Structures are given as structure tokens and as C-alpha cells.
TrEMBL record:
The lineage of its organism: Bacteria, Pseudomonadati, Bacteroidota, Flavobacteriia, Flavobacteriales. GO terms for biological process: tRNA queuosine(34) biosynthetic process. Its EC number is 4.3.99.3. Catalyzes the complex heterocyclic radical-mediated conversion of 6-carboxy-5,6,7,8-tetrahydropterin (CPH4) to 7-carboxy-7-deazaguanine (CDG), a step common to the biosynthetic pathways of all 7-deazapurine-containing compounds. Belongs to the radical SAM superfamily. 7-carboxy-7-deazaguanine synthase family. CDD domains: Radical_SAM. This is 7-carboxy-7-deazaguanine synthase. Substrate binds at I25, Q26, G27, R40, T84, P210. InterPro entries: 7-CO-7-deazaguanine_synth-like (IPR024924), Aldolase_TIM (IPR013785), rSAM (IPR007197), rSAM_sf (IPR058240). It is an enzyme of class 4 (lyase). Keywords: 4Fe-4S, Iron, Iron-sulfur, Lyase, Magnesium, Metal-binding, Queuosine biosynthesis, S-adenosyl-L-methionine. Its cofactor is Mg(2+); S-adenosyl-L-methionine; [4Fe-4S] cluster. Pathway: Purine metabolism; 7-cyano-7-deazaguanine biosynthesis.
Amino acid sequence: MLKKELQIAVEKGVMLPLMEEFYTIQGEGYHTGTAAYFIRVGGCDVGCHWCDVKESWNAELHPPTAIETIVENAKKYANTVVVTGGEPLTWDMGPLTQELKEKDLKVHIETSGAYPLSGTWDWITLSPKKNKLPTQTVYDNANELKVIVYNKHDFIFAEEQAEKVNKNAILFLQPEWSKKEAMTPLIVDYVMNNPKWRVSLQTHKYLNIP
């Protein structure tokens, strides 16, 4: 396929820059501890300095892959598929989620919300970032709000985001991994004083799994 044809296919969402795909245990947020097949899509311009998958940022490093191939791989393993990145909403998620839903798979997304919502989702995890705030469509449809706590100011940011998200979204505070010793006790205290929030941990890292 010619480079221009590949580019058009990616723009239409029928091919996606696939970084990796793997079957594992969901480590964060509401569905912690459940089995899921993860599809990590390349491409992100949000630029979090503490991002633990910076290799996902440059979409050109990851081969455009037909969504039919991605779906065939996913259906072999799990009933639930989690689309993550990078920032998956950089791309049109409509074709991929349609194919996944046709295979009777539950489809989740983990997103910063920096781009308008596309695709059909059973669960939307919004993890907003200060340098590129979420679009209204993601605030309106998020099932959970997961704010990463790197420093004390992030508690203020978390409350600002909680005001913007829909009233049904479940609220989580999660320590950034490199700051977990310092931030986890602060998060515990904060949740005990503000019980609308819950604690999320990166349990997959404690379990030493992907």
C-alpha cells in the first residue's frame, strides 16, 4: 500500500498506528483486577513529563495496522478490550469500536480527553492532563475520572476536573508511580476527608505484569 493510501486509511480509522497489544489484568481504576485485552495505539501530543510510555508519542514509529487484524487478535483472548495509548482519540475510533462491538466484546477506553469523543464505548476512563484539557464531549460521557497526583497542586486540579465531569462519573485519585511514597499517604488522608473520591493504585506494577 502506498504511503498516501496508508495515511488516508489511518485518517479514516480503518488502520491504526498499533504500538502493542497484550492480554493482562486491568491495574487501575474501577475495573482493577479484571482480565482485559489492551490495544495501545501510538500518537500523543499531550506531552506529560511523567508519562511512562513516551515511546507511544510518535505515531510514525508504529506500523499502521488494519483494524480487522486488531479485532481478530483481541477476540481470541478476552470479553473486554481496553483501548489506550498514546492518546487514542487522536484517531477516529468509530470503525475500530464498531468492529469490536460486532464481535460482542465490551469496549473500554483510557483517554486524556484532549480530542472530541469518537467511537462507541461501554466504559470511558478520563484521565485529564493540565497541558491539554479535555473536550466537553468526554467530560459529558466519562464513566470515571482518574486524576494522577504528582504534587500537592494536583488535588486542586482534581477538584476543578470533578466540577466539569458529569455527575455520574466515579472519582479516583492515583499517585504517580515515581511519587507514590510521598503522595499515597496524602491521597489516603484526602479521600478520608473527601469521601466522594476513591483511591486508585497501579496494581499491575505491584504485580509486575504489563
